[in-house]
Amino acid sequence: MTSFDTESRRKAIWATDARKIVDGRAADVYLEKIGQAEREDISHIEAVQWGLKLQDVIGREASARLKMELKEADYELYHPEHSWMASHFDFISADGTTLVEVKNYNQSKRNQYDADTALMPAADAAQCVHEATVHRVQRIVLAVLFGGQELVLIHKEVSDAEKDSLIQLEAELWGAIQAKQPPNATTVDAARKLFPVSTSAGVLANAQLEQACQQLKAIKNQIKQFEEAEEKLQGFIQGQMKEAGSLITFDGKVLATWNSSKGSKRFDPKLLQSEMPEVYERYVIEQPGSRRFLVK
């Protein structure tokens, strides 16, 4: 496979980055590109290893079903106009007009895909559009093996509008990366990653922020009320069940279960500290403080 080191990854936005961006993880991509976070290494995961081993097998079967000669596309390309946009590929038709992207997924994901309607998750669609954009083709086939037992081929015709939309989305993030200006955080996780340390400064709230705080406070109050109601109802039901492991209706339907779990072993740091304090102290490390968000 093509060499793909950290330096190469930081030079551009790749197809796998496009997946993260549309999945609301633009902050992860930003931090990886500016060198403040390392990309997660998943090469040791057995499912990933099997995916690589089965890639050629899936490619051959896709070629047979498509009645199309496929060639390995084990190379990387950069977009001719947008040099920050790059991609690797799996297979390409002999005439150079159709890409084939291979995936090996768990059977549990099967209901998210449909060959007749070209249904696929947004992340897969973004990867397909990204690859088609970089390679300047209009057609790509997503070949997905589910659970090692069902191969589904999803044909996607990529329009110019889809390409332009993705280019614009990625260009905005690439601009933020070059300027080292964090993108807008759209999730709590993204905000924590982008801004892990607070200062003594204050931000003046505009009308939109004031309204957002009021709405969040109301939602938190509702959640608290629901949690209190949940606690009372669950306590009542468990009190009626007593030692019984299940609650059953007259016709045999199970309404609830309350079973004992198996015992387990766990490490007790307090016991180690009391009996071997010197050993304990050697392995105590200081953790940076985290930010706590409160709505007043």
How would you describe the overall organization of this protein?
The chain is an alpha+beta fold. The chain has two domains: 6-194, Lambda Exonuclease, Chain A (Alpha-Beta Complex); 201-257 and 292-296, no CATH class. The chain is built from ten helices and nine strands. The chain has helices spanning 6-10, 15-22, 26-33, 46-66, 122-135, 160-179, 188-194, 207-241, 269-275, 277-282, and strands at residues 70-72, 76-78, 86-88, 91-93, 98-105, 139-146, 150-157, 246-248, 254-257. It has a five-stranded mixed beta sheet with strand order 1-4-5-6-7. A hairpin with a 4-residue loop joins β4 and β5 (98-105). α2 crosses α3 (26-33), α3 crosses α6 and α5 (122-135) packs across α6. The protein is extended, with a radius of gyration of 26 Å. The mean pLDDT is 94.
